[in-house]
Amino acid sequence: MPSTTETISLTQALTSAANRAGRCRDCEPFYCDACGWEADVAFTADVVAFRDTTDGPEVLLITRKWAPFAGHLALPGGYVDPADATTVTNPADEVAVSAVAAAREAAEETRLNIIRDQLRHVGRYDATNRDPRGRRISNAFAIQFAANTTVAAGDDAATAEWVPLETALNQPMAFDHHHILTDAVRLLRRGVLDS
Ligand SMILES: [Zn+2]
């Protein structure tokens, strides 16, 4: 097992996830509610979705259904799945594979239909203490939607709602999602997200 501070590639993490030796039959690739197993190192992807209304910009936030941070506001997102790497030209391209995961997870949690080419990379978040489960390396993406875009909570989200940006910036959020949101707002202000 790699130490939690060791560098590991996305490909290595996905290969490790696909090897289920020693785990129970219910184990997901990176965690297991049945036996409590958690991967030491895993890659995740998060989405900062904005929409521009007459009252100003809004950001899409979910309420987490599960630990850690159950009941907390968060950006939609989740684990990069081994299957996500099979849909891109270069499976070792961490950002490209993470964009697939980001679009898939946002759709699962909020019913948002994301065109992957419209995602803009916000950054790579890999501070060793950002997730209490272990080393979780996240690539975050931002995207802008039309004012009439609707969402609905699904999968791991208890709620999914458009929140006025100024309200969201003043809320505590799970993990380092407030930091990610702040970084994405810079792209929004620069007009980088206009499609
Ligand atoms: Zn298990």
From TrEMBL:
Residue span, Nudix hydrolase domain: 40-189
InterPro entries: NUDIX_hydrolase-like_dom_sf, NUDIX_hydrolase_dom
Source organism superkingdom: Bacteria
Keywords, in A-Z order: Hydrolase
CDD domains membership: NUDIX_NadM_like
Cross-referenced Pfam families: NUDIX
Gene Ontology molecular-function annotations: hydrolase activity
Family stated for the protein in its record: Belongs to the Nudix hydrolase family.
Name of this chain's protein: NUDIX hydrolase
Native source species: Stackebrandtia nassauensis (strain DSM 44728 / CIP 108903 / NRRL B-16338 / NBRC 102104 / LLR-40K-21)
